[in-house]
Amino acid sequence: MRALLGARARHRWVHLVIGGALLMPYFLVGSVVVGGVAGGAGSFDSFPRALVTFALALPLATVSGLVPIARPLLVFGVRALCGVAPAALADGPARSWDARLRTSAWYTLQVALGGVVSGASLALPPFTVFLIALPVVPGLRHSVYSTGGPLATGWGLALAPAAGIAMLLTLAACSAAAGALLARLAPVLLGPSPADRLAAAEQRAVELAVRNRLARELHDSVGHALSAVTLQASAARRVLDSDPAFVREALAAIEETTRRTVDELDSVLGLLRRDDGDPGAPDLATPGLAALEGLLSRTGLDVAYTLEGDPSRVPELVSREAYRIVQEGLSNALRHGARSPVTLHVAVSERELTMTMENSWSGAAPVVRPGGGRGLRGMAERAALLGGHASAGPDGGVWRLDARLPTGGAR
C-alpha cells in the first residue's frame, strides 16, 4: 500500500498529471485535424478517433522537446516530484543534438504516460463511486435494470463495490509503475551528456586552479611574514636588555613586514570578494624581482645576494612567481636554519631565469613552525605552471633551493 499510495507514489502521480496537462495543447491541435478529416466529428465522440488524435499529438510533443530550454524545465519537475538523485540529472539547456534527442524522448514519454494516467484518473473515480453506491441507491438500481447488462444481475450488484475498489487499486498500481519507469529513465534521458560532463569538469578545474592560486598567495605572503615576525620577535626578546639598538631594528622590520603583508592580504581578499562581471576589479598585487632587495632587508637574515642580467627583461608573470619562490625559500631558511647566513644567486638569460639559494641545515626540527607546511609543493606548482622546475631539500649540511623558469613565455 505504501508503494501504491505513499508520498513518493503521490508525488509521481502529480508529475504524471502535469504531463497530461502538457499533452492537452497538442491534443487540441490533433483534434482539429481529426475533425476536419471526419467531417466535423469530435475526437471524444468515439474511442478510435480519440486514439488517432492521441497518436497525432505525440509527434508534436516530440518536436517541442527539441528546444534546448526544455531540459532544465523538465529536470526541475523530476527533481521536485520523482525522487531522483539531483546529481544524476543535467543542469542547463541541452546544447548538443544527442542531449536534445534524449530530452525529446523523455518529454514524449512523460506526456504519453501522463495523458493515459490523467484520463484514467478523471474517468475511473466517478465510475467507482457509482459502483459502490449501486447496491444501496434504488434509483441507480432501476437505471441499471432498465438498461440490462452484467450489473443488472444479483451477483453483479453484490460485486459492484468490490469491482470499483479494484479499479482504483489498478489505477494506483498503473500510476506507480509509470512513475517508477520515468524515475528509472530520468538519469538516462535527462542525465548529463559527455559534453556536459566535460564542461562541468573544466569548470571545476578552473575553480580549483583559482582556489590553489589564492592558497599559494596566502601561504607565501602571510606564512613568510609570520615566520619573519616570529624570528625577529624571538631574537628581540632575548636581547631586550642588552642590545636596545637591535631591538629597535627588529621592531622596525616587524612593522614594515606586517604593513606590506596587510596590503598583500587585502589584495587576496579583494579577489575573493570580486564579482566575475566586474572588469575593473584589481588583480593580485604581487611584487616582482625588482622588490627582492626590499624583501631581503626585512627578513632579518644575513643574505649574500648576487644578480646577473637585467631583471626588467623578465616577463611580469615570471617575475612575480620568481619573487614568491624566493620568498618561500627565505621562509624555509628562517624555519630550518634560524639566523644562519643565506646565499642567493639570480641569473637572467635570454631563455630562462635561474635562482639558487643555500643556507646551513642541521636536520633539526624547524625553529619557527615545527609542524611544517605546504610551501615546497606550492613552490613546485608555481614553477610547473610556467613550464619550469623548482625543487628544495637538504644537500649534505646545506638546504638548497634550485628553480628554473622560462622567460620566453609562460603557459
TrEMBL record:
It is an enzyme of class 2 (transferase). The keyword Nucleotide-binding applies. The keyword Cell division does not apply. Keywords: ATP-binding, Kinase, Membrane, Nucleotide-binding, Phosphoprotein, Transferase, Transmembrane, Transmembrane helix, Two-component regulatory system. The chain crosses the membrane at residues 12-38, 50-70, 105-134, 154-183. GO terms for molecular function: kinase activity. Its EC number is 2.7.13.3. Residues 211-275 form the Signal transduction histidine kinase subgroup 3 dimerisation and phosphoacceptor domain. Pfam families: HisKA_3 (PF07730). InterPro entries: HATPase_C_sf, Sensor_HK_TwoCompSys, Sig_transdc_His_kin_sub3_dim/P. Signal peptide: none annotated. It catalyses: ATP + protein L-histidine = ADP + protein N-phospho-L-histidine. PANTHER family: NITRATE/NITRITE SENSOR PROTEIN NARX-RELATED, NITRATE_NITRITE SENSOR PROTEIN NARQ. This is histidine kinase. It comes from Streptomyces xanthochromogenes.
